[in-house]
Amino acid sequence: MSDQQGLPSFHIDRIDHPEQDLIVRILDNQAALPGVVRMREWARAALALHPGDTAVDLGSGTGTEVVDMAALVGEAGRAIGIDPNPAMLAVARERAADVKAEFIEGSAYDLPLPDASVDAVRCERVYQHLDHPAKATAEIARVLRPGGRAVLIDSDWSTAIFHPGDPGVIAALQQRMETNSPNRNSGRHLRGRLVEAGLVIDDVGSEAVIWEPESILPMYTAVTERGLADGLITAAQRDRVLADIERGTESGDYHFSVTMFAVVAHKP
After folding, report:
1. Does the reported pTM lie above 0.90?
2. Alpha-carbon span 257 to 210, nearest angstrom
3. How many whole angstroms separate alpha carbon 37 and alpha carbon 198?
4. pLDDT digits (tens, 9 = 90+) for 58-96
C-alpha cells in the first residue's frame, strides 16, 4: 500500500505487502544514522529505565528500541512494543526471538494497556503521521503511573535541507514531501502536547539529523515522481535535480538533513 500521495506508507497492514522490504530497509538505514543514534541514546538516558520497570515503545517498527529496553528492565520487567502494522510486528518478533520482549498490535489512539500500568513510554517519529496527536498523548498519560516518564521524538519537516539542486525545484519537492505527513511540523508541538495532557516537562533536546544518500534517496526519488505526476515539476526538471544529486553524492558535495526534537516529561 502506498499512501494517498503515492509515497511508501509506514502504516501498511498486510504481512505480505510488496513494500515491506523497502520500508524495513529504510528504517534500518535511518536507525544507523549517527544523529538518530545520538538522539536515541539521549532519550534512553532521560527515561532512566530500571530493572523491574514496564516500558513501552509506541510505534515500535522493527523492534530495535524494544530490545534495548528489555536489557535495561531485565527479567523482572516488561519491554513492550506497540505498532498498528502486523507486518512490522512480524519483523520485530523475528528479530527479538531470543529476547524477553512483547509485541502487541495496537493503535496510538487506544493503547491496549490498563490505566496507570506503565513506568516509561517512548514514541519516535510517530506523531508526524497522526491526524489526532492530542488523543495519542492523552492515551500515553492514561497508561503512565504517577511518576512515570515519557519521551516524544519527532521530526519537523519545515527544517529540511536538500542540496544540491535548483532551489525552485527543491522548494516544490519539499512542499510535496511535507504534504505526505498530516502533522509535518510535529516536532515543534511536542512540548505543548505533553503539557496539554497534564504531564510535567523535564527536558528538551534536538538533533539536526544528517541523512546519508542511501537513507534519503529512495524517498526523495518517489517524491520527484509524484511531483512530476502532480504537475509541480517537468520531466526535464526531475531529470536535472536527480542528476545534480547524483553528481553531488559522487563528489561528496551534498547535504540532506532534518531537525528532530525530543521532549521528556513525567506524570505528576
Report:
1. no
2. 4
3. 29
4. 999 999 999 999 999 999 999 999 999 999 999 999 999
- Residue 181: the pLDDT is 67
CATH match for 20-156+181-210+260-266 among 3.90.226.10, 3.40.50.150, 3.40.50.720, 2.40.50.140: 3.40.50.150
The single-letter code of the amino acid at 162 is F
Q: Are 107 and 123 in contact (CB under 8 A)?
A: no
In this predicted model, what pLDDT tens digit does every residue of 140-175 receive, in sequence order?
A: 999 999 999 999 999 998 898 999 999 999 988 887
Phi then psi for residue 192, to 5 deg, are -65, -35
Q: Are 116 and 90 in contact (CB under 8 A)?
A: no
Q: Which amino acid is at 196?
A: E
Residue indicated by cell numbers 500500500? 1
Cα–Cα distance between 133 and 124 in angstroms, integer?
13
Cα maximum dimension of the chain: 60
The CA–CA distances, whole Å, from 237 to 174, 224, 251, 260 equal 14, 9, 21, 29
Look-up of cell digits 492515551: 139
Q: CB neighbours (10 Å) of residue 236?
A: 9
* Torsion (CA) 57, 138, 152, 264 in degrees, nearest 10: -110
